[in-house]
Amino acid sequence: MYKFPFGQEVHKLVQQDRSPKKVFVLGVYASAVHAKWKDKNGKLVCQALAVASEPRIFWDGNEKEAAEIISKIHIPEELGSLEPAASNLNGPSAKVLDENVLAPLGFTRNDAWLCDLLPESRLNDNQIETIEKNYNPIRERYGLDEVTVPKRPKKFCDQKRCEEILAELEESKADLLVLLGEDALTQFFNNVAGAKYNNLQKFVDENCYGKAIEASINGRTIKVLPLTHPRQIGALGSHSEEWHQMHQNWEQQMRNNPNYYLEK
Question: Long-range pairs for 253-260 at CB < 8 Å and ≥24 separation?
Answer without folding.
Answer: 253/210, 254/104, 254/105, 254/210, 255/104, 258/106, 260/210
